[in-house]
Amino acid sequence: xxxxxxxxxxxxxxxxxxxxxxxxxxxxxxxxxxxxxxxxxxxxxxxxxxxxxxxxxxxxxxxxxxxxxxxxxxxxxxxxxxxxxxxxxxxxxxxxxxxxxxxxxxxxxxxxxxxxxxxxxxxxxxxxxxxx
Length: 132
Description:
The protein has a 5-stranded antiparallel sheet, with no helix packed on it. It is elongated and about 60 Å long. It is α+β, with helices and mostly antiparallel strands. It has helices spanning 2-14, 35-47, 66-70, and strands at 53-56, 87-91, 94-104, 107-116, 122-124. It has a domain at 53-124: Surface presentation of antigens (SPOA) (Roll). It has 3 helices and 5 strands, in the order ααβαββββ.
């Protein structure tokens, strides 16, 4: 029994009784991080990904023939949105929220008034009255 326990201890400690000098070298792979550390690194990496956020005032459709006539200084393009309608907020090309225009000094901004759920429904979220 004593011999079996020694073999088990040797197997756990040094891979079958070999000394560290006898073990292969050149392994540059660091030891695996505990799963909690890996998930933290993964989250940190995800948090650094850049996404494009675009706020759309409105859209229109034109023919190729209309473009040169409409795109002149002073011309007004009629869009599909009416005054006071919320603006669409896209994240990487996907509709994500609706917003209203705000002005802060010399800057134009967009105040989120609702978040669009992935099924097309929207969830109203006000900045002054957060959803509970």
